[in-house]
């Protein structure tokens, strides 16, 4: 589960890095809203996997302790 969540996090870092690198071009073409929306979409998608991973880990710990 953690590996899946980690793999899902990679596009967020990649998009952020590309956005920072091309910030001047993004501003010049007035596309900031599009990049903000894309970033939010990627974070939301990652949170689904993070929540599932976190919940699964807690459930596993709970079941292992009984």
UniProtKB/TrEMBL annotation:
GO MF, any single term: ATP binding
Residues in ABC transmembrane type-1 domain copies: 1-66
Gene Ontology cellular-component annotations: endomembrane system; membrane
This protein's record includes keyword Phosphoprotein: no
Cell compartments where the protein resides: Endomembrane system
Bilayer topology: Multi-pass membrane protein
Alphabetical UniProt keywords: ATP-binding, Membrane, Nucleotide-binding, Repeat, Transmembrane, Transmembrane helix, Transport
Record carries keyword Cell cycle: no
Name of this protein: ABC transmembrane type-1 domain-containing protein
Organism whose genome encodes this protein: Dreissena polymorpha (Zebra mussel)
């Amino acid at each position: 589960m953690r590996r899946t969540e980690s793999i899902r996090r990679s596009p967020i870092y990649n998009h952020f890095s590309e956005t920072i690198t091309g910030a001047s071009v993004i501003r010049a073409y007035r596309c900031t809203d599009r990049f903000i929306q894309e970033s939010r979409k990627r974070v939301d998608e990652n949170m689904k996997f993070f929540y599932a991973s976190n919940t699964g880990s807690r459930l596993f710990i709970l079941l292992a302790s009984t």
